[in-house]
Amino acid sequence: MVCIVQMSNVGERFATGGQGCDSGRVVIWNMAPVLNEQAESNKSVPRILCQMDNHLACVNCVRWSGNGLMLASGGDDKLVMIWKKTISGSGGIGAFGGGGKSVEHWRCISTLRGHAGDVLDLAWSPQDRWIASCSVDNTIIIWDAQQFPKIVHVLKGHTGLVKGVTWDPVGKFIASQSDDRSLKVWKTTDWSCFKTITEPFEECGGTTHILRLSWSPDGQYLVSAHAMNGGGPTAQIIERDGWKCDKDFVGHRKAVTCVRFHNSILKRSAPKTNKLQQYCCLAVGARDRSLSIWLTALQRPLVVIHDLFQDSILDLSWSCDGYTLLTCSGDGHIACLQFTAQELGTPLSEEDKNILYQRMYGKNANIDLTAQAEKEMIVENSDFLNVLKSNLVPPTLVPPQPPQLGAKRDEGKSSQATAAAAPMSMAIQSSSSLAAPTPILKQIETKTADGKRRITPMFIPLNDDNGVPSNATNNMPTAIEFGSKSSENSVNVEPKQLVSEEPTVPLPTEPSSKLDNRLKRIATVPPQKADASAGSTEQTTGSSSSQPASNQKLVERTRPVTYSTGKATVIQGNSFKAFGEVRVQVHNNSVKTAYGTLCRVVGLVVNAQRVERKVWETVVGSPVVCFAVAAKCALVCSQDHTIRMLDNKTGTPVFPVLSLTSPAVQCTFSSNSKLAAVVTESGILRIWNVPEKSVLLSTNCAEVMSGSFVTILHVSDQGMPFIVLSNGTSYCYCRKLDSWMLINSSDPVIRHGLIGNKANAPVRNIKAYPLSTIQSYGSFSGPKVNSFAEMHSAPWQTSAAIAFIENQIKICEMITSPAELKYWYSMLGFQLALNGSEEKIRQVLDDLLGASHSLDTRMGDDNDPAVLGISKHVFMEDVLNHLKMQTKWQRIYTEYLDQLKFLKDRDGRDKALQME
């Protein structure tokens, strides 16, 4: 008999547990023959990787740890065993059991004894800090996964058999469900019972072998097993916001035994509207031998399969990639369902999930479950009373755009309408008299030559894409098979339009926001498209976008498109670039002479009627490899290493013909058109001041190129050159330091910092945000799969994040970027509020307060009250605003706020005296 199934997070193997010949048995299987027909027919590919017969009675549960390195099993022998893979089979008697030769060797590294009855369910906490086990002895035991077999706490309160346990994905709660017709939510800070829910289970009669509940990956919804609504079995939906129980899944004919959320938040484009949706996926199994798959973006189940087994469904497990679902039954069979990205969607990346967690809970995916920050504290400062219910929100670099005219919102009415009309899409509103569900018989069943059953799932047709009607009329279907609202007072509730008035900029999430609305709001940010293949186009276009004056708009078109190779390549055919009404055209190899082929360079003016008028023409004795156009001049670089600066109005040279040691591969102007820059094949970099006809900078990129080449060149109005290399690394040259400053590279600290602080869309505005724009061109990938789980809450991450942010601040100071400087100081405050130490917070605040006012006499001699024209006290206010969101920093906040107010009052008095 197979009682349980669980897939490893790496997707290579899965484990089953159940009754062996004369003992409890755990088997680790190879996933390849299940998914691949060729591997199934290949006898050299093993099916069973290892078999362990150590349990003395039937195994009721097997669960892999988050990092996939350990496997936990619990059974009727009252034991929990922790297994770990070893190189050899020298793990002692019965280490891998079974009598046969094992492909892999798994050793029991710890046996956990503490329960007085059968162990029915297990659950690893986020980051594998703890593992919880529940038993027929009415208790839940929390084990320390770092110090097996240490017991952290025993949760007592249920009066019946505890048959299911699950962790809140953000680590604040653990939930359990029992035969006593209750579901309890326990706090992980002190292990006290936080909430007991009984109403949905009061009518439950009979019993099930297990009651496996599940928490949604965003932490907003807890779905229980066996509940009742109007005499019919349901899976109850419990909202984290207020622990409301007014929605559930209906449709199964017998008691729901297990539910399992997909491990990731998913995203896809809606089939009809093409709008980006973000949602969760849930599998539900019941004693009626049927399985249903739900998406929160749909009104009806995605898949319903009937008579999948001959007995009750006992467990469900999603694969790491999210496209494979294993389910098992008490009849000893396992079914494997495979989906596609078109059917389910694609998982949200770890960094996007991190951003979502930070917005919702003020913490990232690497949750420190042992931190004391979650413990309740006495509020000593009245300023904290208004923020206790708020979440710490990370700052945004680009300020949110104001809502468009005509899109006015009444905040009070809006929140009420959202609360009344934003039910979870999977739980459809219907009348109080539920229509009796009729079985769906349209599924295809075939048998293979070896007698195996193959069931083709039937996809339920949908009424609309988003699961929410787009108008205000009550157009709900009259007959609903799956999904119903529990409340019987919802007959006349009219669904409202939910997304028409949403702003196009991500906003902090209110605590009362529902899952679908919140995720759609994040997804409404329009992506900013940019072509990284043409460096000067991207840079100058980005700079002009902040001030879209019609007479300063740069347009560049080159046909055909050429891609940078590090070598000067002759422009093929005709190409032109324009600035305002001036257009410069290049025609290579257009004039044949006895002395050789000439290149024509033509200046044109485009009037208001879009009619071109030729104003000048000149010839160049060598093919042009790159050129750029500014407000007054055009920079033309040829294959023979020469460089020409031409007047846009007359075509006459501004400079004499210049020659470098190799041809230029990139050329550009600053956004104010006063500076021109080129970089050559050999790495020579020159920046000229055009009005003064003088060189501003002469240096060499070769010292940082190391086998690569320059793909993007930009020069700021202050004369700071930025380069992006073909290997993704980027630099900025500082004349003051006579050195290249590292902007982006494969350095782990930089990668961790950029991924952790990345916005929804890359910032491409070179004038307003030069640092972020250049860093957005890096081609370095994020961490490998499962690395977040493997790193746990690694202590190095806080140090790395702060080191990265402080370096960003120093770069912003050197490149004169005040907007980004303010952003990174705000980000520093956000990081310190989340994970900083008191010593580091005081050091930062002392520095911003000023050396003369600091209590630390070791402070440096930097008494400058401003940076880039911004008072340090402005940065200090940003930091304090983030500290205010965390109660544990209230004393530091009060202390430094008082000092800041004193200095402001004193400065105000001094100014008043000077005016007198």
TrEMBL record:
Location (main, coarse): nucleus
Bias (Low complexity) ranges: 532-547
One CC-aspect GO term: HIR complex
Residues annotated as domain Protein HIRA-like C-terminal: 651-848
Annotated spans, Disordered: 397-420, 460-559
Record's keyword annotation contains Oxidoreductase: no
InterPro entries assigned to the protein according to its UniProt record, in alphabetical order: Beta-prop_CAF1B_HIR1 (IPR055410), HIR1-like (IPR031120), HIRA-like_C (IPR011494), HIRA_B_motif (IPR019015), WD40/YVTN_repeat-like_dom_sf (IPR015943), WD40_repeat_dom_sf (IPR036322), WD40_rpt (IPR001680)
UniProt subcellular location: Nucleus
Keywords: Chromatin regulator, Nucleus, Repeat, Repressor, Transcription, Transcription regulation, WD repeat
Ranges of Polar residues composition bias in the record: 468-477
GO MF term list: nucleosome binding
Residue ranges of every copy of the CAF1B/HIR1 beta-propeller domain listed in the record: 12-197
Pfam families named among the record's database cross-references: Beta-prop_CAF1B_HIR1, Hira, HIRA_B, WD40
Single GO biological process annotation from the record: chromatin remodeling
Domain of life: Eukaryota
SUPFAM superfamilies according to UniProt: WD40 repeat-like
Keyword Metal-binding: no
Its biological purpose: Required for replication-independent chromatin assembly and for the periodic repression of histone gene transcription during the cell cycle.
Family from the record: Belongs to the WD repeat HIR1 family.
PANTHER family from the UniProt entry: MEMBER OF THE HIR1 FAMILY OF WD-REPEAT PROTEINS, PROTEIN HIRA
Protein name: Protein HIRA
